[in-house]
């Protein structure tokens, strides 16, 4: 090859190598973008799951609070009929006491937090001593 031909061949080879390097760099950037998008999606899903769990726990706390208040008031006044519906934190809560006998009552409590609702039913022994839960059932909707 003559001197001029070798120079042209080297220039063509360099141009081809630059084109391949550009394609490789674009491919790496594409993979990086997809990886970051998947990471962002994963973090968003985890955050939403944590927020759902926080709402569920808050609802259970409101429900447990109204049941505890009902039992506390039953300890002071065995004729207590239940907690009237009221705003409690971010939700609503209430309870009803149904007499099943002189020493036995059923406590039904409910709480709502946004669109979710939780209910609890407890069979409570009123005597002897302070009120004690005999059976307990809680349900979330």
Protein described:
- A hairpin with a 2-residue loop joins strand 3 (104-113) and strand 4.
- The protein has one helix and five strands.
- Helices cover 52% and strands 30% of the residues.
- The protein has one domain.
- By secondary structure, the chain is of the alpha+beta class.
- The model has no long low-confidence stretch (mean pLDDT 88).
Q: Would you summarize the structure shown here?
A:
With about 140 residues, the protein is an alpha+beta fold. The protein has one helix spanning about 5-75, and strands spanning about 85-90, 90-100, 105-115, 115-125, 130-140. It has one domain (about 5-140).
Keywords:
single chain, 141 residues, alpha+beta, 5 strands, 52% helix, rod-shaped
Strand content: 25-35%
Major sheet characteristics: 5 strands, antiparallel
Distance between the termini: 84 Å
Tally of DSSP β-strands: 5
H/I helix tally: 1
Name the structural class: alpha+beta
Strand arrangement, largest sheet? Answer: 1-2-3-4-5
Q: What sequence of helices (H) and strands (E) makes up the elements? A: HEEEEE
List the uncertain runs. none
Shape: rod-shaped
Question: Averaging pLDDT over every residue, what do you get?
Answer: 88
What topology does this entry show?
Layout lengths: L2 H74 L9 E3 L2 E11 L2 E10 L2 E10 L6 E9 L1
Antiparallel strand pairs: 1-2, 2-3, 3-4, 4-5
